[in-house]
Structures are given as C-alpha cells and as structure tokens.
Amino acid sequence: MSAAVPESSESRTWPAEGLARVPYWIYQDEGVYAREQERIYRGATWNFVGLEAEVPDAGDFKTSFVGEMPVVVTRDEKGALNCFENRCAHRGALLCLKDRGSAKEIACVYHNWTYDLRGNLTGVAFRRGIKGQGGMPEDARPESQAPRKLRVTVFCGLVFATLSEATPPFETYVGAEVAARIRRVMKQPVRVLGGYSQMLPSNWKLYFENVKDTYHASLLHLFFSTFRLNRLEQKGGVIVGGDGGSHVSFTMMNTDSSGDEYEKAGMRSVSGGYRLEAPQMLESVDEFGDGVTLQILTVFPGFVLQQIMNCLAVRQVLPKGLGRTELVWTGFGYASDDGKMAERRMKQANLVGPSGYISLEDGAATGFVQRGVQGAAAHASVVEMGGRSAESSESRVTETSVRGLWQQYRRHMDL
Amino acid sequence: MTRVDVELQLAIENLLARYVHALDDDRLEEWPEFFVEDGRYRITTAENFERKLPLPIIYADSRAMLRDRVSALRHANIYEAQRYRHGVSSVLVERVDARTAQATSNFQVVRIMASGESMLFASGRYLDRIRLSGETPQFEERVVVLDSRSIDTLLAIPL
User: How many CB pairs under 8 A join A and B?
Assistant: First the structure.
C-alpha cells in the first residue's frame, strides 16, 4: 500500500500582495468550498432568498437555498415572513418539494410529520403508537433535530436570511450608500415578470467577481460599446459598501459619446460599423429621474440587483459544487406599469439572461477562467486596476469592488 | 375519425423542417425569412408560460429585430463555436381560417461544442401561428416553450 497523499502539496496561504492577487486554488479546493458553506453561507452573512412579491399572501411559500442548504420561505397567517431549513426533523427529507405554492401547514411526505408555516414541528404521526403498541418513548425529543430557523430581514421588498445571531443589521451590513441605491430601484411595489436560471460552468466566486468587475463590461460585451451604452469614458462610478463585499456601479448615459479612447487603443470592442435595424428595443424612459441608465448592485455573498435602462431583475448566485454555479434570474417591473412600460421591459429583456446581448458572454467567460487555471493552483490572478485597495472610485477602469469582495471573503474565511 | 388535411400537414411539416435545417446548417441569415415582416418570436420557459408571466429569454416583434439578433451573433457577441441538431416531431396542425393555421410540435436540441462535447441542450414545444396566404407558409408567431427553467451556460443560437 502506498502512503496517503495529502490533498495538495501546494501552499494554501494567501499571496503576500494581498487584495491585488487572487490565488487560483481558491476556485479549485474542496476544503475551501466546504469552509465557505460553513463560514460564509451558514455564517454571519445576509443571503438573498427571494422577493416579498413572490409570496404575497398568507400561506404562500417558495423554496430556495442558502449556499447548498435548502430552505423554505413562507408568509405565515400573521403576514410575517419566515425562513427555515427545508429538512424534516425525523430523517432529514426535504419538507417542501415544490418550487412554490400555498399551504396551511407543511407535511413531510416520508412519514407525514407536520410543521406550521414558521417551521415548528406540530405533529409526529403515531407518536403514541396505535392501541398502546409502538410509538415513541415518553422522553423522546424529536424537536431537538428540528429544521433550523433563519433570521429574516425584509429590505424594500427583498428578503434576506441568516443563520447567525452575529450578522449585523442589513443597512450596516451593506453600508448606507448601497442601501440608498437599493431604495432607488425598489422604490415602489414590484410585480414579478418571470424567471429562469443559468447553469454556469464555474466556481460561484468567478461569477460574483464578474458582476463586480466594471473593467470588463465594455471590453467583453461589444454590444454595449458599439452603441456607446457603457463606454468607460462615460460618467459613472463605483461604490464599495459595508465590509467590502457589497457594491454599486452606475453609469450615466449620453453624458459623453464623443470620446475615442477605445478607437485609439485599437480595441476589439469597437470593431466595425455595426448598427441595429430595430433600435426601438433600446428606447427607454428615465423612471428614476436621475439620469442613471445602468446600475449594478451586489450584496455579499450572492445577490445582484440590476437596472439596465428599464430592464430590472434580481439574480441569486447559488453554488452547486466547486465548478458549478446556478444563476437564478427573476425579472420584475412595478405594479403600476402600464402596457407601454410592460412592452418596453419585455423588449429590453433581450439584453440580459442566457441570451442577453450584454450578458451572454458572462456565462462563458467565467468558465474560461475555471478551465484556464486548471494547472495553475500555485499562481494567482492580477487584480491591480485602480490600485491595490478597495475604496469607492469615480472611475470604472478599476477592479476596486473585486478587491472589496476578497476583503470581506478573507475575513469570513480567516485566510 | 379525425380528418387530416394532408396537403396542409405536409406544407407545415416542410416549413418546420426547412427552419431547423437552416439553424443547424448555420444559415442564420435565412432565419428571419421564415417569419412575416411583423412576425413575433419568443423563447420562454414552461413555468413562465403556465403562470402567464411575460418574461422572455429572447423576444422579437419584427423581422428587423430577428436580423439584429443574427447580426449581433455574427459581429458582437462572444461565444464558443457550437452547433445544434434539432429533432422535431409530433406535429399537430389545425386550420384557423383560409389564410391561417396553428401548429404544435415537440423539439429536442442537441448542442455540439467544437471540443466534441455533445449534450441534450433543450427540449420543449413550438407553438406556431402560420400565415398561408404567401408563396410559402411563414410564421406570424412562434413561441418556443422550454420544458426546463434552466439553460446550460448560454443560449446564443436561436431555437
């Protein structure tokens, strides 16, 4: 027999350069992945689990995930939102099998143990046996293995949950500026327009970095640049919030479409005279009254709020294994939308999602990194655009919010 | 016994076959020509469809918008080389009036990456409204209803 081989002989120490380097083993190590589940998702973080509008009435429920842990989100008889582990106290089976629905109580299909809408165990089938035969001992305490209840916070119609008592209040967690930018988009009651999901062939952090990476937006996504929707010379900024892992980037369109920095640099993203035959798709109205045409906002560890013109969506980033991530998109409008606005949102939906003119590349690009670094665990990516720290920035030629992610990540992971 | 309008059935099946061959042969520029000038095309999921939720994955309400999609795929969007192979079956055709028919069919799409990796990429239904008055039948509306809510990586080439 050969001697046991350690999982890896390579160092698992963060590079000395700090936030300016991201070691590739961070996307490849099973031990790191397991520690993330414990310290991040089941730790002191706010995890997005849905929109309040998805469970509008008493008895409504939906299922979701906090990291890999399955959860149920309910609205109880009193109208309060609850989130608890989707796991029966008895043998651990899923309690809710459906994505969504409405119920008075929740029963496990396996042995019909029942729960109320707050996740309390209310019934154990044949607990006292039948005719004095069988049943559980008097002193049995099945409640001791009850599904864990998560603390819930509802911020402007967004529902977040945490298992930890130590997670700070939501506004403190994301910072005042990020909170204000959430209020800006979630300014009135929303209407869910639908959803879909995208399975990405990469580690969850590669996607979360991608969303925070304002530097790539106009270089990878040619559609934007050609139509001067998001050239980095336009006015905008990046705000890093909370402990670093939450951010907002925003762009004011039409403030400057005369620059030629891209042409001078000979970049691929302005090649040729590509024009739309039906540019009506991009006709938008300034429904926020501030000239911001694009705002991308994240909350650590897996929430994205997107306003691209009149195309609004939330995205939930869910780890599904070391090299696999599910991106759950939910498109929304406002309850007050008229027919014209509804049609506008439908047309602009072409911009995002797995077929999105300005987003389809992201699914592939994160996979290119996952594949590209297969033999390079001991190497690291270079994250030095805009410096080496994680402060807010007026320029979007920066990776400051990517560094912010790693700042918060490392604190949780003690790396 | 249900009477089948054989001529209409064959004309529609021929349209569906020519459509998928154009896509599978990478003749994307021909794709908009299968639609009338103000034809509508929409990809959605069965879940959205059943819940009557409007969010599309792709949506166009004119041939011009379809041509924009093709030109973006050719000149703007970045994705790895890939091809589809469509199977279309169980075509049900119903005449609406002298110049219009409706059709429902099933599809399965295998996606073949340049690396050789093949996978069952999509399955679902085509719900079509077809104009019969022109030289050849054309789609007034084609709704692509995906069975699954989940798309692997990205959906670039249309279905």
Answer: 121
Establish if B78 belongs to a structural domain: yes
Strand partners, B28: none
If one counts the domains in chain B, the total is 1
B153 touches chain A (CB under 8 A): yes
Cα of B83 to nearest chain A Cα, Å: 15
Count, residues in chain A: 415
All residues at 6 or more sequence positions from B147 whose CB lies less than 8 Å from its CB, including other chains: B46, B122, B123, B124, B125
Q: How far is A167 from chain B (nearest CA, A)?
A: 32
**Per-residue pLDDT tens for A31-68?**
999 999 999 999 999 999 999 999 999 999 999 999 99
Q: By the 8 A CB rule, do A124 and A136 touch? A: yes
Query: What's the CATH number where B11 sits?
Result: 3.10.450.50
Residue type, B44: T
What is the span of the domain harbouring residue B118? Answer: 6-146
Neighbours of A372 (CB within 10 A): 11
What's the CA gap between A309 and A185, in Å, rounded?
11
pTM to 2 decimals?
0.94
Q: Which of B56, B68, B78 sits opposite A277 (nearest CB)?
A: B68
**Peptide bond before A354: cis, by omega within 30 degrees of 0?**
no
- Residue A106's beta-bridge partner residues? A115
- Domain chopping of chain A, boundaries: 47-154, 175-413
Domain A47-154: give its CATH superfamily.
Answer: Rieske [2Fe-2S] iron-sulphur domain (2.102.10.10)
Check pLDDT > 60 for residue A70.
yes
Question: Are the beta carbons of B43 and A220 separated by less than 8 Å?
Answer: no
Confidence of residue A3 (pLDDT cuts 50, 70, 90): low
Which amino acid is located at A21 in the chain? R
State the Cα–Cα distance between residues B61 and B141, nearest whole angstrom: 9
Residue B36 covered by a domain: yes
Euclidean distance between CA atoms B51 and A315, whole angstroms: 20
CA–CA gap between residue A403 and residue A20 (Å, rounded):
7
Residues lower than pLDDT 70 in chain B: 1
Superfamily of domain A175-413: Naphthalene 1,2-dioxygenase Alpha Subunit; Chain A, domain 1 (3.90.380.10)
Measured between CB atoms, does B75 come within 8 Å of chain A? Answer: yes
